[in-house]
Amino acid sequence: MSAQFGKVGVLYGGKSAERDVSIMSGTGVHQALRSAGIEAHLFDTGVRSLAELAEERFDRVFIALHGRYGEDGTIQGALELLQVPYTGSGPLASALAMDKTMTKRIWINEGLPTPRFEVLDRRSDLAAAAARLGLPLIVKPPHEGSTIGVTKVSDAAAMSPAYALAAEYDEQVLAESFISGRELTVAILGTGDAARALPVIEIVAPEGNYDYEHKYFTDDTRYLCPAPLPEAVAQRVQEISVAAYRTLGCEGWGRADVMLDADNQPYLLEVNTSPGMTGHSLVPMAAAASGMSYEALCVEILRDARCKVSGRLS
């Protein structure tokens, strides 16, 4: 299999707030590819330069970076310039999906369901925004992931500290109506008409708090896969997730996060274009539920690696 893929770089680490998670993801992917007989090499973009990346002369790379500089179109654009095929979405789709505000504007324009929102900055009247959206609501930085900088606000007095926390990560802050209900996620593989949803996962976190710690470092959160949903509801959740992915122009693989309210109405929250691949991660879990091993999942994602702007296939 090594001859089929050549020399493969696994880009991990990086400089974002999700560096630690990326290191776990990249390490897992690297081990899986090596187990499959692929010549894979770890490359930490947080400590090594683009010049060094060019010097490695990788035949293709697996992007296991999360957050800024790895999931936002930055590294994707650099790889296009270097003419190195890479996994996942291209520069534009990556940038759009990373910006939750732009994502929501596009979805609303396309008629896809997503919670109401407002964009806040230091001049905003926080109390007025809370009154318009209603409480409780969610305050978060629109360019971060893994629930970093996110606060659930149940009292208008908590708006200021919630805004301050989110503003540590972004100049503008996103306030979003809180959808009370079931937390779901849908892994997606493929591109365009070939994009397909894997089984829906329901996330049941302690006291409904699916934070950074519960995502990656404890075993307290339960994951139900496939989610115990009526067939028609599960199909609807999968359909809007794939539609959300396609609308942003995503490619290769990704994961859509969805809230399901008491009336079984789904609301799209975001699409991750480089989801976690750790031992606690959800894309490998959904793949396993569909009969695909972690190793096979990594190989399938790598097989789809290509340059998107130039059209060069490899």
From TrEMBL:
Instruction: Identify the InterPro entries for this entry.
Output: ATP-grasp (IPR011761), ATP_grasp_subdomain_1 (IPR013815), D-Ala_lig_Van_CS (IPR000291), D_ala_D_ala (IPR005905), Dala_Dala_lig_C (IPR011095), Dala_Dala_lig_N (IPR011127), PreATP-grasp_dom_sf (IPR016185)
Q: Which residues form the active site?
A: 18, 146, 281
Chief location of this protein within or outside the cell: cytoplasm
Cellular component per GO?
A: cytosol
- Keyword terms of this UniProt record: ATP-binding, Cell shape, Cell wall biogenesis/degradation, Cytoplasm, Ligase, Magnesium, Manganese, Metal-binding, Nucleotide-binding, Peptidoglycan synthesis
Where, in this chain's numbering, is Mg(2+) 2 bound? 270, 272
Q: Which GO terms describe its biological process?
A: cell wall organization; peptidoglycan biosynthetic process; regulation of cell shape
Q: Which GO terms describe its molecular function?
A: ATP binding; D-alanine-D-alanine ligase activity; metal ion binding
- UniProt EC number: 6.3.2.4
Cofactors required: Mg(2+); Mn(2+)
Q: Does the keyword Ligase apply?
A: yes
Show the SUPFAM superfamilies listed in the entry: Glutathione synthetase ATP-binding domain-like, PreATP-grasp domain
Question: Catalytic activity annotated for this protein?
Answer: 2 D-alanine + ATP = D-alanyl-D-alanine + ADP + phosphate + H(+)
- Binding of Mg(2+) 1, residues: 257, 270
Return the similarity comment.
Answer: Belongs to the D-alanine--D-alanine ligase family.
Q: Which PANTHER family match?
A: D-ALANINE--D-ALANINE LIGASE, D-ALANINE--D-ALANINE LIGASE B
Q: What is the recorded function of this protein according to its Swiss-Prot or TrEMBL entry? A: Cell wall formation.
- The protein in question is named D-alanine--D-alanine ligase
Annotated source species: Pigmentiphaga humi
Q: From which lineage does this chain's organism come?
A: Bacteria, Pseudomonadati, Pseudomonadota, Betaproteobacteria, Burkholderiales
